Amino acid sequence: MGQNAPVENHARTAVPPWPPQLRRGAGPRFLQIADALQQAVTDGLLKPGNRLPPQRELAAQLDVDLTTITRAYDEARRRNLLEGRGARGTYVAAPKVDLTSVLDLSMNTPPPPDGVDFGDLLKQGLAQVLMRADNELLMTYHLGGGSASDREAGTRWIAPMFGSMHADQVVVCPGAQAAIAALILVRTAPGDAILVERTSYPGLRAAATQFGRRVTPVGTDKDGMLPQAFEEACRQHSPKLVYLNPTLQNPTTVTMPEKRRKELAAVAKRCNVPIIEDDPYWLLAESPPPPIATYAPEHVYYISTLSKCLTPGLRVAFVLVRDPVERERFLVALRSFALMVAPLTAALATQWILDGSANPLMLGVRGEARARHKMASDVLGGRYARPGDGLHIWVELPAYWRPYQLAQAAESEGLAVTPAEAFATDGESENAIRISLGNVSDRARLRAALQRLSRLLERRPDAYGGAVV
Question: Exposed (0-12), middle (13-18) or buried (19+): which is 167, by Cβ within 10 Å?
């Protein structure tokens, strides 16, 4: 062999000692194996370049079938832990280099749940849909606000909030934003007032402005909209709607206590003003109070979307509309701009809900969100963040920072956050930013982003020197 001939490093390619221990009741075996692989890489027992045992050999060693090992290796590849090298075998992959310039803490999406194989869930769900459904029906128009099965799935989804109900009361919509827009068209005319909290979801303001409606802010306290201020606004502005997001409010994270919900429901009934209750985070909250719709069922349109508890790709929302005449009016308005939910999407959502797959996915999202809240509290400290639920935190800034100024400085540090100005409905914003915890898929990268933000919060703007290029 010549002096410069390559010599294979036996230490890097030899099969390392790696005996994962499988336990009964600890979850699917393929996930236990993938988790053990990930832990071994984290602990340094397995290093980049180490060759893993052939799948049949490992199956015999662990006394499992070959399919279990194949699924475990596939899951490990999905996590970027392994790479295949053809006939040479499967090797521990080198760390993936992240070339993304900005870590996005501005988009409220559910985090990938730990221990749930989303890819496998998606494949199985679609396989069941295609096996059981008429493929022609999946590719044609559907005009009825959801099939009977879709509406039945809707009743099961919102059963934790309301108990059992008739499926005819549920309308299936292509997302919560479409439902909000349709309700604005149904219940208001150009120039009418819609009451909102001073800091509120921008999507409501965008839809109302587009339709020529007036967004009118109402005073709040630590528990949300003030009942007395609501009633005074009704007398002063004769509103046609009031919009509330009472559970883990976006962006402030406030959850209205039950007493406040009852008081607002009573005002709505006295003043005969319908409420849009947008409630995407109820299932993620720890022991939330009953919805406002419980106390004023004939005065509340209740919206629950799958986008925040499962995945944004399921553009499905369930709207509780009890009155049949109102339901038909709502459908007419909805069809004017969004004819239907994509049938394949609706069928997948229905399949997951009815076969029970949606619940562990939702519980996985909830558990991961709570772990990330704990991380944010640990990194940012109680001064800026407290452990909680949901997908975001509301960070009150020190007096030397302003929201838009901090957001610009964060962007220079490779972070995207949302300043309070984006949520203000009266032109005056709180001195805060919203941080979304789910859009950065990897916990380690999220921790690094939060640490970067923590250092920025501690620096005064006059001490901050961004690069000039």
Answer: middle
Which residues contact residue 439 at a Cβ distance below 8 angstroms, ignoring those fewer than 6 apart?
A: 104, 105, 106, 107, 108, 109, 111
Report the Cα–Cα distance between both ends of the chain, in Å, rounded.
52
Pairing mode of beta strands 193-197, 241-244: parallel
Q: Can you give the pLDDT at residue 212?
A: 97
- Phi then psi for residue 456, to 5 deg, are -65, -40
Alpha-carbon Rg for the chain, nearest whole angstrom, is 26
Q: 317 by DSSP, 3-state: which?
A: strand
CA–CA gap between residue 220 and residue 197 (Å, rounded): 7
Query: What is the architecture of the domain spanning 103-115+359-461?
Result: Alpha-Beta Complex (3.90)
Q: How confident is the model at residue 100 (pLDDT cuts 50, 70, 90)?
A: low
**Rounded to 10 degrees, what is the CA torsion of 160, 161, 164, 167?**
-110
Q: What is the token pair recorded at 186?
A: 């149904």
Pick the CATH number of 12-92 from 1.10.10.10, 3.20.20.70, 3.30.230.80, 1.10.1370.30: 1.10.10.10
